[in-house]
């Protein structure tokens, strides 16, 4: 049966929604324009906790013959803004009713907010606080998901997010990484959780560079104070990518499909222990390349430092290092981080330098002090420092840098050596 509502819903008008809900055993259904609406829940897992920490509520519609109706078709039924608001509230009312009776009385319920509710601001959704009071569901167990969208009214968006936060709910930005995503919105809204769009994962599955970008996005979001959820995980490989990226939570068909059989969901098992064992096993086989590179080059590197500390000229002291095909360059830095003389480039690197980056090749008197590995080498002479792979500014290639502080004629010097993070195959083993 179709019902209409005024543009704003007040607490007393919750009574308009209540007759549209029907209890069936332990769960609730809703009637909307001849369709039966049901709640489906999809579990959300914490990788570190190895268990469910929340559920996303999804609407499922069925016609009088109990045939499924696509959500897309359901949300095309409203013919006015008032009807759109009605359907949005009805779905959330249904979900909260069902979750209030759910066996799991600890974890979060993720609820989607209609873009129309967001654009209307918190006044149009002020009934939500009354809805929580009516059902008795604590607001701290609710995560309100706001889909990113282009909007000229940033202040109204902030107002809406602030309203849910003042109620005591958590807030999440949904589909981050799609069309209109940007970090400015993260900084302005300060959500508790950011849900990454599945397209980021799809690209990371096929492209190693995209995988590195995914890892970087997760790191930036963590630094912004947000927990990160990666949705759309459908394969074992994608689960490995999610773990490696450092996301906090995962969601997707690989772990569990959405289900309207609510009573059965908490009892179903997901083998996160086995998944983490696979990751640890794989990680041991394909360890961070710095481990292999450091163990191989440390002897050559310390030998070069010994020669330099005894007064040997740079070219002769580093000759063995520079002859290795995986080594790109060596350079000396003083105790203030400023480079002494120009860089020694290996013959192999010199023959493959990209002329497009020629303005960056000369590094005489360059100041590298802001590099963490250099500051550590200056602070801890005699201790070998090694970086994770990073983009070398002098040639825009990925490298790992070894650095070690030593004394010559009473002055502290640091020898640095850049090693290709993706050296020619078997070059490290050949020596």
Automatic annotation (TrEMBL):
Taxonomic superkingdom: Bacteria
SMART domains from the UniProt entry: EAL
GO terms of molecular function: cyclic-guanylate-specific phosphodiesterase activity
Pfam families (alphabetical): EAL
SUPFAM superfamilies xrefs: EAL domain-like, Sensory domain-like
PANTHER family: CYCLIC DI-GMP PHOSPHODIESTERASE PDEF, SIGNALING PROTEIN
Protein name, entry field: EAL domain-containing protein
């Amino acid at each position: 049966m179709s019902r209409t509502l005024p543009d704003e819903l007040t607490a007393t008008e919750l009574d308009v929604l209540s007759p549209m809900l029907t209890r069936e055993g332990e769960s609730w259904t809703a009637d909307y324009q001849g369709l039966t609406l049901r709640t489906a829940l999809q579990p959300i897992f914490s990788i570190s906790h190895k268990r469910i920490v929340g559920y996303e509520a999804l609407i499922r519609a069925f016609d009088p013959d109990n045939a499924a109706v696509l959500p897309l078709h359901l949300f095309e039924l409203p013919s006015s803004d008032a009807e759109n608001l009605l359907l949005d509230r009805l779905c959330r009312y249904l979900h909260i009713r069902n979750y209030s009776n759910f066996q799991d009385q600890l974890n979060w319920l993720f609820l989607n907010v209609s873009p129309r509710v967001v654009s209307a601001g918190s006044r149009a959704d002020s009934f939500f606080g009354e809805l929580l009071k009516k059902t008795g569901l604590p607001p701290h167990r609710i995560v309100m998901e706001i889909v990113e969208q282009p909007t000229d009214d940033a202040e109204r968006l902030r107002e809406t997010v602030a309203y849910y936060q003042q109620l005591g709910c958590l807030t999440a930005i949904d589909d981050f990484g799609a069309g209109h995503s940007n970090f400015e919105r993260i900084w302005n809204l300060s959500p508790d959780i950011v849900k990454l769009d599945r397209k980021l994962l799809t690209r990371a599955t096929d492209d190693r560079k995209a995988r590195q970008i995914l890892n970087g996005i997760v790191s930036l979001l963590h630094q912004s104070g947000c927990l990160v959820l990666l949705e759309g995980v459908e394969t074992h490989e994608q689960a490995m990518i999610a773990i490696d990226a450092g996301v906090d939570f995962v969601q997707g068909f690989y772990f569990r499909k959405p289900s309207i059989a609510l009573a059965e969901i908490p009892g179903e098992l997901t083998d996160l222990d086995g998944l983490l064992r696979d990751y640890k096993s794989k990680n041991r086989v394909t360890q961070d390349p710095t481990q292999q590179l450091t163990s191989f080059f440390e002897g050559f590197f310390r030998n070069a430092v010994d020669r330099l500390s005894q007064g040997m000229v740079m070219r002769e002291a580093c000759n063995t290092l520079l002859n290795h095909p995986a080594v790109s360059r060596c350079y000396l830095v003083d105790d203030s981080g400023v480079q002494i003389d120009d860089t020694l480039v290996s013959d192999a690197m010199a023959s493959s330098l990209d002329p497009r980056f020629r303005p960056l090749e000369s590094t005489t008197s360059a100041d590298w002090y802001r590099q963490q590995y250099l500051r550590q080498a200056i602070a801890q002479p005699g201790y070998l420092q090694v970086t994770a792979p990073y983009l070398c500014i002098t040639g825009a290639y990925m490298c790992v840098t070894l650095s070690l502080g030593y004394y010559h004629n009473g002055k502290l010097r640091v020898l640095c050596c850049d090693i290709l993070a993706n050296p020619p195959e078997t070059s490290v083993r050949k020596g």
